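Might you be able to consider the sequence and fold that I enclose below?
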Amino acid sequence: MGQHTKYEIRLNDSDRWFVEKVMPDKAMAEKAFQTYAEDENTEYVGVQLVRVWTRADDAEVEKVLKEQELTPKVAPVRLANIEEASPCAHRDDYLGLGARITMSRLLRQYLDREGLIPSELLYNYDRAKRFMAGPLSTTAVDRIATLQARDTGGDSRKRRDAIFEEIQGIMDDVQKIQKTKHFKSFESKELPEIVSTASTIGKPIAFHVLLCKSTLLYRSVEGKLDLILTWLQSETGQEMEVELDSILAEIMSSSTLIQEMLGPQRNLASAILTLMDWVDGKKMQGTGAAPDAVSAICRLFSQGRLEATRDVLFDFILRQLAGKQPLARNDPSTEDDEFLKIFARLASPRGMTGGSDMAEALTRRYGRTLKQGGEGGERMSIKWLLDMLPNGASQLPYLIALHDAPLGEAHPDVITQSIATMCNAILSISDFTGDGVLAKKRLVCMKDLHELVEESSLDEKLQKDLLSMLDRVVEKYLMDTKLIDKLDNPDASLHDRAVRMVQFCGSGVLWEHGHAMSLAQQRVIDHLKGVGFIEKFTAEESDPAKKEKMIRDFYKMMAEAGFKS
């Protein structure tokens, strides 16, 4: 029964009972029930703890384990502090994901109190009218107008008037759709029917207006989340993925929801690493709220889907790393170790996940552990962080990413000097990969670093110096290990030797422009120039037609491996 049992926290807002949270663990649910029961600032009149289990016939049976009456106290709703607002010039900007994420952050208390997501505020006339009639709307619009005017150099009063005008226009268009007979008679939660009815109405925003009519049937964010995920896993959902992914990203922009879905975590570092597992699409069993939703999101991520939702979760990771909360509050002595674990997940020979923003966030976080502040502290944080990193495969991607960050642009000499030191100090491939690493993994690491440098914004001389150093390291490795001689074993037939060398050249483990590649290719060319190559290459085959095919296939393989004719 365990895996078919869940626990729900239900609240009563005087109109009805609704599901506020769904949890797989009874102890966690009891703790949540107690939190609501003891909340002196509650806005609800009752709380229940309900056990729900699924019978063998798939019917759900529920039992109220605990119930308590509450005395509501209406607490003032405040705007959150935000430092940036998505720019809005056209209708699509006001309705776009960037604007909705801004709403989600700014209006978090209001949205949580009302059981809404930003789209429901935009695409439902009654909800929008109620919000715009309240005192919070003017303050919210003023805040957005001020931020946008600051970023564009415009007039905040004109910006405020333009926002109010556009909001009214959106509300008018939504109201027109809600007055149609098709909207009034629509009661389905099935995605194909939403799409079909929206097509019948024939207005650009009809789909979202109908979608929000369905999501508004759920007050709890978990209910909305389950509905969107159910749609996404349907055939129609795949066709409408861009729209649904946008809504899911909007839902997942709530830091409160993410923390609840994460459940108990050892510390902030553990929470961040768990989120990275989600983003990487690993198979996960959620330990907090909505565990089935966590599994579904990870499964969809593993299929390369939900780009917008992935971006929102990664932005949350970035914000946490840029913040001041310790990674290991439970054990401060492990702060550096936790930092390096996270860094290792973010830095790879292919580049820094999160790019320049992530490089700067990590540098500033590390810098806060130093006593020195100001410009000197910034420079020191870069140098000391480099010293912490285990090898060149993490140092170089970090420096390249930081080069494009405001912090790197403020101290370009530190970046240049650090790269110059690396070019002079590197002695072997182990300085990049460490010891005990398989040859193929070593070579792929170096090839990825070559390509990372090639695609970077470093100046031309710095690029050339780095590429030369990397190439020299690989060439030395091939010569020291005699890897080419081992592949080109003279005891094997010429056919096997030549094919093996061409396959090595085309395997993607060598940088195509380097001396190391030239060494490997030259060995093949030497075979081709050898006396009687064709006879020796086809010696094991007697059929003339098959001999001819062997030669054709070999030259085709060479072309695919990058050999020039």
